[in-house]
Amino acid sequence: MSIEPLPLDGITVVAVEQAVSAPFATRQLADLGARVIKVERPDGGDFARGYDTAAQGLASHFVWANRGKESIALDLKDPRGLEVLEGLLAGADVFVQNLAQGAAARLGLDAAALCARHPRLVAVDVSGYGAEGPYAHKRAYDMLVQCEAGLVSVTGTPDRPVKAGIPAADIAAAMYAFSGVLAALLRRGTTGRGGPVEVSMLDALAEWMGHPLHHTMHGGRQPERTGLAHAVIAPYDAYGTAGGGQVLLSVQNDREWRRLAEQVLERPELADDPEFATNAARTGRREKTDAVVAEALASLDADEAVRRLEAAGIACARLNSVAELAAHPQLAARDRWREVDSPAGPLRALLPPIGLPGGAEARMGAVPALGEHTDALLRALGMADAQITALRRDGVVA
Fold it and tell me: Whole-angstrom distance between the N-terminal and C-terminal Cα of the chain?
């Protein structure tokens, strides 16, 4: 039986990108088979390369968002660098950029200008707040957009809002840019024309805020911050167990509460107690409800607590650390780990979430060094070694 090729085999992407939002979008394209040419500054490249040194001396953000790409270091402020980029674009299907607002337009690299020059090109502008409006030129880092989008206001405890522990605004924008590229390529297959794709971090995260947004607009009241608890369901929280572990459980209806009371708490009388018998009663007496559950689970270790909860048909989860995620038995059982090459040697990485059974496995290529592919790409454009040497001498390429 033949294996289907990756769906983006034959697609070439050129990206002038930095940080997370655009790089994470183009990494999805690379995993699905696209050739992604990453254009970086000669003086240090994508600034995410310098965020930390946690991945065997490389930056963890960069390793995560940039595997499978070719790196060319170009000074786009030099006309010769822009000429090289134009040569790359002549053979590209997709262009992605997330430069500071207005910078792409000054270079003639905004989506509208590019699509006028290259009608089959899908050109993606990823911005913080969009191209127009009072916030268009405002600096837009992930945490700032989390605040502007209201995510921080619904995350945390009653006493203190907190940001999400992952770059949620960056990731949201990346995934909409990724899906926007796929939609535009599909349309191009019908019309023969590419076209602009616009994604802003604020728009993307505002969409993800749909539940609290609609709850507030139509219900008249913003959901409260409840930590790990649920605003309208009880018990739904993490509870300590013997030995220090924590287990989160969720009771979705009163039938489940009965099973919890009888089989886990070993207090069957609570099933019909009017203080606990209904979800409305339990949420109205949340502290008392949580105390009853916490007392029962505190005498069990985490393994026994999970065993009892699962036997009773109660949804539950361990409150894992990141290290425990890396050792998660489900990921191991489903063979989700691979090794990715990098300038620091092989690095462990997860397969991307999109599976295509019957097709080739995701192309998890190497993490590139800065300018690793500069010479090869310039030669492919027809440049002689003497020209490349001159460009390198003048700092136009690296």
Answer: 45
